[in-house]
Design brief:
By secondary structure, the protein is mainly α. The chain contains eleven helices and no strands. Residues about 5-20 have low confidence and may be disordered.
Length: about 220
Amino acid sequence: MARSKILITRLTRKRSMVGRPSEDSRVRQRLIDAAAQLFTSLPYEKVSTRAIATRADSNIGMIRYYFANKAGLFEAVCRQFIDQMTAQLERFVNNSSVDGLGDIISGYYETMAPLPAFPKLVQRAMSLPEDDPSRQIIQRLFTHINDTFDRKIDASMSKADLKPDLDPKLIRMSLISLMVFPFLMPPAIMQMQGIKLDTNFLQRLAKHNKELLKHGLSA
């Protein structure tokens, strides 16, 4: 009888845990979220592991446990967003139409909406010397995105979905500008233009850019 009660108790505990994140995963994500807020608002060298741990209501030991050091945590922050961007690109890479290019912009806006300061972090890191650890991490993680981006443009050109006299490199530059600039615009200029960078505005801008690409690039 006692053994049956123990088994029932264990089964009940297991059922109650199904679908719930473990405490370990919550701590790890809190550290990533706290680090994302600090890394996007301060230069890499100004962010301390102690400040991250305090903001995450954790401790430095947990940073060492999950990420080894500050560089490892910085990479985890960047990878979280870059993996999402890569997934968005992969979703549309097989669609060789101009609409597919517009969908890439929409996907990028959707990914950046929760942390719109992330592109500024990338810009800041890529402006640093080549031996800076934050630049090296960003550059390494972006390599796959760049390759996927090139495949998408090449596929569109080869299927004659784009005007044949267009330069693929310039198309890439135009797409990057449409994707990234809204997040790099200084707040004062946004205010002058009456722009609020929220989900509603990004959805409207994505739709506008999609039409812009269709009329400007389609063969």
